[in-house]
Amino acid sequence: MVAVHPPGDAAAQAAAFALVIARHETRVLLVRNARRAVWELPGGWIDAGERAEECALRELREESGQAGHGLRPLAHLLLERPRPEGGVQVLAGLLFAASVHEPVAFMPTTEISAVGFWAADELPEDISPIDAELVARYGRE
């Protein structure tokens, strides 16, 4: 389950992860997670001493090979996930938008098997449900 709120300064300080909706023209970039076998938005955990904006651009580059431009915050996310010992863990994150001016060729890695640009209303069937919701809300902005 994910809750979406407008971004704010307090959200940036509490964020543990960052995601990015990167667009080239009218299409949204998705990466294929090799381990989970799903398409998803590029993103990951914020490193110690790293700002959420830096994480978003770094993850976009690491996961897709693409350079992001015009990064801007879209939303503060609260993600609930079950704990192995029971109960729920709530993780805070930030969703950003960026543009990809000139897409570059992608070389598969052990983490990401493919990269694709998709129309927001023609997403692959095996996309992460949370990411599908985020693209539906913000993929046309």
Automatic annotation (TrEMBL):
Looking at the record, the residues that make up the Nudix hydrolase domain are 11-141
Q: Which UniProt keywords apply?
A: Hydrolase
What GO terms are given for molecular function? hydrolase activity
Q: Which cofactor does it need?
A: Mg(2+)
Pfam families xrefs: NUDIX
Top-rank taxon of the source lineage equals: Bacteria
Q: Which family does it belong to?
A: Belongs to the Nudix hydrolase family.
**What is this protein's record name?**
Nudix hydrolase domain-containing protein
Say which species the protein is native to.
Answer: Pseudoxanthomonas suwonensis
